[in-house]
Structures are given as structure tokens and as C-alpha cells.
Amino acid sequence: MPNNLLAGKVGIISGALNEESIAWKVALKAHEEGARIVLTNAPLAMRMGEINKLAEQCNAPIIPADATSVEDLEKLFSGAQEQLGGKLDFVLHSIGMSPNIRKGKHYGELNYDWFQKTLDISALSFHKMLAVAEKQDAFNEWASVVALSYIAAQRAFLDYTDMSQAKAVLESIARSYGQRLGKQKKVRVNTVSQSPTKTTAGTGISGFDAFFEYANKMSPLGNAPAEACADYCISLFSDLTRYVTMQNLMHDGGFSTTGISEEIVEAITAVTKQSE
Ligand SMILES: NC(=O)c1ccc[n+]([C@@H]2O[C@H](COP(=O)([O-])OP(=O)(O)OC[C@H]3O[C@@H](n4cnc5c(N)ncnc54)[C@H](O)[C@@H]3O)[C@@H](O)[C@H]2O)c1
């Protein structure tokens, strides 16, 4: 049930590709909670056209921007302030893509040009967004910026290949910019480390179904769904979390602090019995 948590606030939401996208759910909830938003995605993704449906539902303008292009981001941030009639209160970075994952390269045979693309799209784009926002003085005081991350930044998940490094960089950028923008303008910058989620980016990873099930069995609360991730982002955009900054916040049903679960023990015991 909406609580008007974002009444009077305005922001930018990136990365809504289709109804499965985490950003799609964040956009709907931000709208429900009283915010006015600008939607953005890469021009290529925009051609698929689905974002228009979301824009209609949220009554939101769309400004295309390739998040690796500073020029596009400058137009995005200035255009958004123009459309929304003032400085921004929140930004969601929900952008990730690895050409190495797309082409099925395993960790030992990564293509380094693609590795750099992965880093540029999935991590440096966050730095570029914040640098542009700072230069344009685009944030209101107490604004909140959230980027979506994954636990492969801290733990080895080999099938996540170069995205693991991208997420580690992303989380580090959140800390550095959190310090800088916090001091300058009381702006919060955090990353939310989300459970495996069945989206276009998620299911593109080899072995996704297995690690989705594994995480689900390991987490006492089960995997966090995309809707719940959206709720968490809304709470971080709201005034209820004003002193939370420079954090990587686990939104994973308890996965990251579980050693082993009964379900995993039972599954392994069943397999061992079968092979006896
Ligand atoms: N799905 C998961 O299991 C999972 C888990 C943890 C974190 N995340 C993160 O959540 C975020 C959103 O992913 P999602 O799962 O909703 O999948 P998604 O595929 O719906 O979203 C990824 C978005 O990135 C956009 N994008 C790619 N290249 C871009 C570029 N150059 N410029 C601008 N946008 C670009 C795509 O168009 C797409 O909208 C990503 O950062 C992802 O790594 C996902």
C-alpha cells in the first residue's frame, strides 16, 4: 500500500528494459509513492519499445542515454532537471552488461576488450553519472543514489566472470562518491546487493537456474524478489534513511551470512544415498 514516501521528490531511473527488470518495479513504486521521474535506457534498448508502456503508466518522460557516454549523460541530467523543474532527489543506477557473459566466455578465456566494455557499462558508468551530476550541481541536499550490485563482488562465483570485478568497482565508487557528495551536499550513495533475480541480465548468466535454486535453498527467507528490491530502493530514496550512506546493503534473504542450510544438507544427503 502506498505511503507517499516520495511525495514531492523527483528522480532518474535507469535500466528498465521490460516488466522483469528490477528498475521497472522501482519506477512503478516510485510513481505510486508520489515521485515524479524521468526514465532512461540505452538507445538500443529503447528500440525494443517496451519502455513506452512504463512511461505511460508512470507519466514519465524518457531520455535515451548510453551510460558509457559522458555526452549522453550530460544531456540526461540537464534534460531531467528541465523536465522535472528542478534538482534531483534520487537516482537509480540499474545497468549491467558483460559481452564476455553474452558470448559464453569462461573466466580463463576472457576477451580483454570486452572486459573493458563490461567495466565501462557496469561500473564506470556509475562514476560518470555522479561526476556529471556533481558538475551540473544536479542534486538537492539529502538526495539519494542507489546502484544495484551482486555478492560476486565479495565471493567467487566463476560463472559471473568479469561482472564480479565490475561489481567490486561499482561498490567502491559508491563509497568514494558517498564520501565526496556527502561532504559537499549531504547526498547519500549506496549499493544494494540483490539476490539472483529472473531478469534478462540475470538469466543470461550460465548456470543461472542452479545458482538461483542454490541461493533460494541457502537463504532463510528465500531469494528476495524484484518487487521487494524495489521496496528497499524506495526506502533508501525516502527521508527515513537519511544517514545511511557509503554502504553495500545486502538484500538477499540472509544468504550472505548463512554457512549452510537444512535444505542444502538434505539435498546433498539425498544425492549421497542415491549413489551408495
Ligand atoms: N538479475 C539478477 O540476478 C541481479 C542480481 C543482482 C544485481 N543485479 C543488477 O541489477 C541491475 C539491473 O539488472 P536486471 O537484473 O534488472 O536486468 P535487466 O536486463 O532488466 O537490466 C539491465 C539494464 O542495463 C541496461 N544497459 C545495458 N547497457 C547499457 C548502456 N550502455 N547504457 C544504459 N543502459 C544499459 C539494459 O538496457 C537493461 O535495461 C544490474 O546492475 C544487474 O547487474 C541483477
UniProtKB/TrEMBL annotation:
NAD(+) binds at residues 15, 21-22, 95, 167. It comes from the Bacteria. The keyword Oxidoreductase applies. It is an enzyme of class 1 (oxidoreductase). It holds the Pfam family adh_short_C2. GO terms for molecular function: enoyl-[acyl-carrier-protein] reductase (NADH) activity. Keywords: Fatty acid biosynthesis, Fatty acid metabolism, Lipid biosynthesis, Lipid metabolism, NAD, Oxidoreductase. The active site is at residues 150, 160. InterPro entries: Enoyl-ACP_Rdtase_NADH, NAD(P)-bd_dom_sf, SDR_fam. Pathway: Lipid metabolism; fatty acid biosynthesis. Its EC number is 1.3.1.9. PANTHER family: ENOYL-[ACYL-CARRIER-PROTEIN] REDUCTASE, ENOYL-[ACYL-CARRIER-PROTEIN] REDUCTASE [NADH], CHLOROPLASTIC. Belongs to the short-chain dehydrogenases/reductases (SDR) family. FabI subfamily. This is Enoyl-[acyl-carrier-protein] reductase [NADH]. It comes from Hymenobacter crusticola.
